[in-house]
Design a protein that fits this description.
The complex is a heterodimer of chains A (about 250) and B (about 270). With about 250 residues, chain A is α/β, with parallel strands linked by helices. Chain A is built from five helices and 14 strands. In chain A, the strands form three sheets. A six-stranded mixed beta sheet of chain A has the order 4-6-8-10-13-14, with no helix packed on it. A five-stranded mixed beta sheet of chain A has the order 5-7-9-11-12, with no helix packed on it. Chain B is an alpha/beta fold and about 270 residues long. Helix content of chain B is about 40%, strand content about 15%. Chain B has an eight-stranded mixed beta sheet with strand order 3-4-2-5-1-6-7-8, sandwiched between helices. In chain B, helix 1 packs across helix 12. The radius of gyration of chain B is 18 Å and the shape is globular. The N and C termini of chain B lie far apart (about 55 Å).
């Protein structure tokens, strides 16, 4: 997962009204509890023994239960008993580790996420494939949100950012203004400033404008400034899109 | 009900003070009760253009700080009965202006029966310019037909649409008007200057007046006589038209094309 979000040449300003939720990638150290038996009596004894050596350290600490060292994946009843033992020892289980189809089913049964699937030992190649595919898919974006609509001219020095949605501007964008969207940018007027689409890396985002005089256009962080944009497009309806690493411009519409 | 009109531009030297003085005189000549306030604290000029520099005793900052009453600081114009000037302080800086103080003075002027309060903004987008526009109902944005002035005006228009009391309260925003000054049709024709249509198109606003470039403007400033009062000047007629449009009259645009040469001039050339 690419956690380095690409926001184009500049990071967009926070919108004037903060969204009630921020979804961000963060890294937090997480204790791994690797178990080699499903015998809950043995587990509980061992855990309580360790707890007593450092009660402040282990009490209510979040742990990920790594099942990859077990010879065979536990049954649903067994995993529930293991979780109960961990809870009684004073720790809080927040996920399961281990990559196999059975463990995925177990995780669903006890309603816990699977964490760090690749690091767990003893993964079969077949099991890695789907896990990686899932992990590299973009986070389901909320680009289905209704577009943000701006009806006033965006003046020099102003910045408009449409988070997780398209941006539709029914007026012009002045020189020195910046319009930014995580989705596409549509401008039904002249574009004299900067337009940035796909601010969080959406490669299929596009920029459309009715009258093209842009200073800069960027899609998913790939940008071109006006000097490198064909002068023949000036004043025309234009769209810009990304093909690999190349940003293309062409007339659009009649 | 007083109407507060800010004259602003972002860029310096485009003719804000000349415009403030002429619009104030034009409105007052039509019988309106008008006060024009210099917001350029520390660089006061309006008193010179209005020709009342020797009569400044108390200024805007004195009123805000309670050193004197508003009546003591208002300077009555000698030419037009209903026109008053509130000068800026030359010895303070813009930090002496406070939002609360400006609001109080504007309220008091409105209660005194002034119909138009013209706020002559300093250049820039700092505190003085901010406070000059903050309480405005309308804005006259002064633009020269060249790209740096147009861009600065675009910036100012953005601030008018977001950083003013009307914009914050959401009651319709500040009504914006463009006024082109130093317009030279000959240089527009030769491509050295932007045309009225270029400026209108870039800024997406209609113009309320086009004042031609004229030596009369400088000589009027030197004489302390607002150029609108020089009745034989084109600049005066252009300001007169702009005042008429401010009041909602429809007046055709003048001075935007090169004057046609007469037969004699065409034959013998220049």
């Amino acid at each position: 997962m690419n956690t380095d979000l690409n926001l184009g040449p500049k990071r967009p300003a926070e919108p004037s009204i903060p969204s009630p939720v921020d979804i961000r990638y963060g890294q937090i150290g997480l204790m791994q509890l690797r178990i080699r038996t499903t015998d809950t009596g043995v587990l509980l004894d061992e855990l309580t023994g360790r707890m007593n050596t450092a009660p402040n350290f282990f009490h209510r600490t979040a742990v990920c239960i790594d099942l990859s060292e077990l010879e065979k994946a536990p049954e649903t009843q067994e995993i529930k008993a293991i979780l109960e033992a961990v809870r009684r020892a004073g720790m809080l289980a927040v996920g399961l580790a281990g990559a196999s189809v059975q463990i995925e089913a177990l995780a669903n049964a006890v309603n816990l996420p699977i964490l760090s699937a690749f690091r767990a030992a003893g993964i079969s190649a077949a099991a890695v494939e789907p896990a990686q595919r899932v992990a590299t898919e973009p986070v389901p974006s909320e680009l289905g949100n209704a577009a943000m609509i701006q009806q006033q001219t965006v003046r020099s020095g102003q910045r408009i950012y449409a988070r997780n949605r398209d941006l539709v501007i029914t007026a012009g964008v002045g020189a020195g203004a910046e319009v930014i969207a995580d989705g596409c940018v549509h401008i039904y007027g002249s574009l004299r400033g900067r337009a940035m689409a796909g601010a969080h890396g959406q490669l299929n985002a596009r920029v459309f404008c009715q009258e093209f005089h842009a200073e800069l256009v960027s899609i998913a962080g790939v940008f071109r400034v006006f000097e490198t944009i064909p002068a023949t497009l000036a004043g025309k309806p234009v769209q810009a899109w990304l093909d690999g690493e190349v940003l293309h411009f062409a007339p659009v519409g009649g | 009900m007083a109407e507060i009109i800010v004259v602003t531009s972002g860029k310096g030297g485009v003719g804000k003070t000349t415009t403030s003085a002429s619009i104030a005189c034009g409105l007052a000549r039509r019988g309106k009760r008008v006060v024009v306030i210099d917001f350029d604290i520390g660089l006061r000029n309006l008193d010179l253009i209005m020709g009342c520099e020797r009569r400044v005793v108390y200024d805007f900052v004195n009123v805000i700080q309670g050193d004197c009453s508003l009546k003591q600081a208002l300077i009555k114009d000698k030419r037009i009965e209903t026109l008053y000037v509130l000068a800026a302080s030359q010895t303070r800086d813009k930090e002496a202006l406070t939002s609360e103080g400006v609001r109080r003075v504007l309220d008091e002027l409105a209660n005194d029966g002034f119909e138009y309060i013209i706020c002559d903004s300093p250049a820039g987008i700092e505190k003085g310019a901010h406070l000059a526009m903050y309480f405005a109902d309308r804005a006259v944005v002064v633009v020269n037909p060249e790209i740096s002035s147009v861009r600065d005006s675009d910036r100012i228009l953005g601030l008018l649409a977001s950083k003013t009391s009307r914009a914050e309260k959401g009651n319709g925003g500040v009504k914006e008007h463009l006024l082109l000054t130093r317009y030279n049709p000959r240089r527009v024709a030769s491509g050295e200057m932007l045309s009225v249509d270029d400026v209108k198109e870039i800024l997406g606003l209609d113009v309320i007046g086009v004042v031609p470039e004229s030596p009369d403007v400088l000589s009027a400033s030197n004489a302390g006589l607002p150029v609108i009062l020089n009745d034989v000047s084109d600049a005066s007629h252009a300001y007169e038209d702009a005042v008429a449009r401010l009041l909602g009259e429809t007046v055709p645009l003048r001075f935007v094309t090169e004057p046609k040469k007469g037969l004699f001039a065409r034959i013998f050339g220049s």
